[in-house]
Amino acid sequence: MSIPEGATARVLASEIRSGARSARTVLEEHLVAIDAREGEINAFNLVLVNEARAAADAVDIRVAAGEDPGPLAGVPVALKDNMCTRGVPTTCSSRILEGWRPPYDATVVERLVAAGAVVVGKTNLDEFAMGSSTENSAFGVTRNPLDPTKVPGGSSGGSAAAVAAGFTPLALGSDTGGSIRQPAALCGVVGVKPTYGAVSRYGLVAFASSLDQIGPFSRTVADSALMLEVIGGHDRRDSTSIPEPAPDLSSVLDHGVEGLRVGIIEELSGDGLEGIADDVQARLHEAVAALEAAGATVASTSVPSTVYGLSAYYVVAPAEASSNLARYDGVRFGLRVDALNAGDMNTATRTAGFGDEVKRRIMLGTYALSAGYYDAYYGKSQKVRTLILEDFARAYEEFDLLLSPTAPTTAFPIGEKTADPMTMYLNDVCTIPSNLAGHPSMSVPFGVGEDGMPIGVQVLAPAFGEPTMFRAAKVLEAAAPDGHPAVGGTMVGSPTGVRHE
Fold it and tell me: Measured in whole angstroms, how far is the alpha carbon of residue 490 from the centre of its chain?
């Protein structure tokens, strides 16, 4: 079966609020889709069947009573499994959090529920969000719904796959160096990294606190706008939360790009960066033509220090991870491997609980923060971060938006890059600069490559530039070449042993 192409989150919520459809019926359609193909895709760590049915029924009761459940009334939503959900296992796809059930909900979860959304489950990810392929998980590999021999991207691969497969119309991911945008590109869906601080991180299990940001996946630009309006806005429980309301995006979606100035980042395109595939570069050129046809002025521009983004990121992010993950000691959370003394217990627990990639990054980060190396590595990387901010600021004096590929290639085969971490890290070369700068950016599906797999174009904006960014994204969505993967894909296979709670 397939989820109807018209079943966007906006359409579903409208139909449920009007009583034309019931939330329970909509949920059951999506649960059938999950049962049909989840065994093949492995998008979820946990499917909350009973809880979701109770939530859908509660929405229907409110509608029957003449109440408005909210802008996401009855819409099924998936959550990346690094967002706290009260009483529900939250694993970060790591053994080290085995058995831990948070005593509270993340702010984004509270806001989704308050808007009437129905949480369907927790999605798979690279352990503690460290990866670009969703192959580094204690729960196994997630597969790309459009070609199950290939990766869905990462680290939010489970959320991207859930939307691409039609399991849910919406999902949340987290983006530290591209972990929303890169899998969105590889799975042919929309993925958004908001301005740092625009969405509360309260209840997001930390990887790199100065880089992490929560954002939406959806099948359409309009649905991502709606979800960002719901989850955005100030939260006093997050000290990095911007004291501003959520941006109004829906009202500007159709304003077009007439008169906007758009710059193509030379250092992040095939003209200035090795490794950008020819078909990816071709789609970028087509996107430029589409924006020009819609009235924008497009020209090349240089953001020179972005060439150092990857190097700076892989010092800053592991350093912050080393600090954040020190709390997993076998005493306070999750897994505990007993030993004769506390030191041996800490060692045994972390050895058994963390996977290879997490251990690799903890060691990198600890080294970068160690005496004698702090200034040489972490301090210098923060200086590079400042240079990136300054270079972006100069570019935005001339341009309203910037453009680049989202990922260097289309989805690659499972196992192809796991033996070479540096090759894997290069998948985030186009997305990392926005995280270092704290700026918003998003990936919009724009046709397919020579292998028939989706390609994403990345739209970048200055801080708080989401309204303009979404205007351009809507134009690109409308102009996307033929060959864009069908919404929801095709549901095949038979019911499988999905883990239910």
Answer: 23
CB 142 within 8 A of CB 157: yes
137 is catalytic: no
The answer to whether residue 143 scores a pLDDT higher than 60 is yes
In the 8-state DSSP scheme, what is residue 208?
S
Q: Is the bond into 155 cis (omega within 30 degrees of 0)? A: yes
pLDDT classification of 52: cutoffs 50, 70, 90: very high
Instruction: Of 337, 341, 359, 348, give the one whose Cα is nearest residue 98.
Output: 337
Identify whether the C-beta of residue 369 lies closer than 8 Å to the C-beta of residue 319.
yes
> Which of 132, 156, 179, 269 does the annotation list as catalytic?
179
Whether residue 239 lies in the annotated active site: no
Q: How many angstroms separate the CA atoms of 37 and 114, rounded?
A: 30
The residue with greater pLDDT, 1 or 154, is 154
Tell me if residue 322 is catalytic.
no
The proportion of the chain whose per-residue pLDDT surpasses 70, expressed as a percent, equals 95
Q: Kindly name the residue from 155, 159, 269, 434 that is annotated as catalytic.
A: 155
* Domains of the chain and any CATH numbers: 9-266+398-479 (3.90.1300.10)
Long-range residue pairs from 382-386, CB within 8 A, at least 24 positions apart, any chain: 382/312, 382/316, 384/305, 384/308, 384/309, 384/311, 384/312, 384/436, 385/312, 385/316, 385/436, 385/437
Of residues 22, 80, 150, 322, which has the active-site annotation? 80
Pairing of strands 441-448, 454-460: antiparallel
Q: Rounded to whole angstroms, what are the CA distances from 445 to 125, 175, 183, 286? A: 21, 18, 11, 12
Q: What is the mean pLDDT of residues 439-466?
A: 98
